[in-house]
Amino acid sequence: MTDVTSAKSARRPHHWRHDLIELAALFTAVVVADTIAKTVVKGAEGPYMLVFSAIALIATAAFHTWWARRHSHAPPTGDPGGSGTHPLPPAASGTAPDGEPAAAPAETVLWRMRTTVRDTPGSLAALCTTLAREGVDILTLQTHPLADGTVDEFLLRAPAALQANRLGREIAAAGGSGTWIERADAHDLVDTPTRLLGLATRTALDAAELPLALRQLLGRCTIHSLPAVSLTGRPTGETAPVEGVLEDTVMRLRDPNGGVITIERPYLPFTPSEFARARALVELDARLGPRIPRSQDVLTLPEGNEITVRRADQRDVAAARAMHDRCSTRTLGLRYHGPVGDADRYLNHLLSPRYGRTLAVQTTSGRLVALGHLLWDGDETEVALMVEDDWQRRGIGSELLGRLVAMAVEAGCESVYAVTQSSNTGMVAAMRALNLPLDYQIEEGTLVITARLGAARAQNRRRPGTYQQAEH
């Protein structure tokens, strides 16, 4: 609505009765003035008539003033249809009712809350009333229809003093069940359609992004990719129907590469809506086929040789096997911790984007001389390196490890670990060069070094849930 339209609609109705009364008063005054003038000119009582006329005019003026104030066209003070200027409330004007400056806004935090309510009129209104009473602002709301109710998922801005336990009790009293509350951050402010499009874009650009996209879509969950064929070439028996399977807290989806993608979230059942979204991402991955970003960096080693660092996938299996043939038994043993003769069997698995990301280092002649792997291992992330003997101790391992850790930080990983032998001084030195807190575990000559990413991943971190009311 325009300002002109608003002004017209705010004007009070015009009353012609007031104009007729004022016109009649004007004619009466003219007649009286004419009579008085003739009397003053022709009679001896003129002065008395002038006095009486003055008194009459004063009385008429007083009456007219009273009448105008009572029946004026202008609205009284504070009428919303008046001049359009209204006094600001104390909060808007920056002052309290007693004239003191208003208090600063209270500190707030973001919460993500999910609860199940009956599919009846007024159930959502009861939740909203409870949240309003606690001073909680609803930023976003998603509904997940179920057969016997509705799962409502909220993003809330709440006073910092409001505890999750108290909010959970109030929601339960308002009819919510199976309530889950966890801290959120600014990244959750993105609306659901935008977030889904972003995850689809990431998946379309890089096949290795699918497990990460599923984890960001579904929250804290554990994802396992189980191949259809084992490393020894035998069928594993792992399969799933094309449409997938949803069983409460477990999803099973057919992996486009063969096998099954299993997603588990024990603390919160999946909804049919979440299952449909996850299946759509997997179908997108299947339709697009193998793909990785083809960007590459050219680096110069201290002795002057140039190397290229790029992403690798299963199309590099032949080059990786050739590198294996040039590596010593000791180098292969430090990398795979098992029979050296089985090393080639691991390559197809390690280079699959389904299980993580791989960086390859090649020379100017195109020969592959090093591989670095960032492997998704359920809730954990493993880093592994192998550098050809003739190219060791030139800083290639440290360069690969730093890039892999940066990828882990970008993916929101809590930590990364490396499994090696205690005699592998090169790997130990590379982990220490990260300048991150390290944990060491040694068992029967096997060394596990865990780097806690800490502040490097702070902005991508999601705090663990602090309140759960589960139904059994």
Q: Would you give an account of this structure?
A:
The chain folds into four domains: 16-68; 108-189, Alpha-Beta Plaits, CATH 3.30.70; 192-288, no CATH class; 296-460, Aminopeptidase. Helix 7 (192-205) runs parallel beside helix 9 and helix 10 runs antiparallel to helix 12. It contains 14 helices and 17 strands. The protein is elongated. The chain is 37% helix and 25% strand. A hairpin with a 5-residue loop joins strand 9 (296-300) and strand 10. The two termini are 54 Å apart. The protein is α+β, with helices and mostly antiparallel strands. It has helices spanning 3-10, 16-42, 46-71, 90-93, 123-133, 164-173, 192-205, 210-218, 272-288, 317-326, 329-336, 343-350, 396-410, 425-432; strands at residues 108-117, 137-145, 150-159, 177-183, 222-226, 245-247, 250-254, 260-264, 296-300, 306-312, 356-363, 368-377, 380-387, 415-421, 438-443, 446-452, 465-468. The strands form four sheets. It has a five-stranded antiparallel sheet with strand order 2-3-1-4-17, with helices on both faces. Strands 9-10-11-12-13 form a five-stranded antiparallel sheet, with helices on both faces.
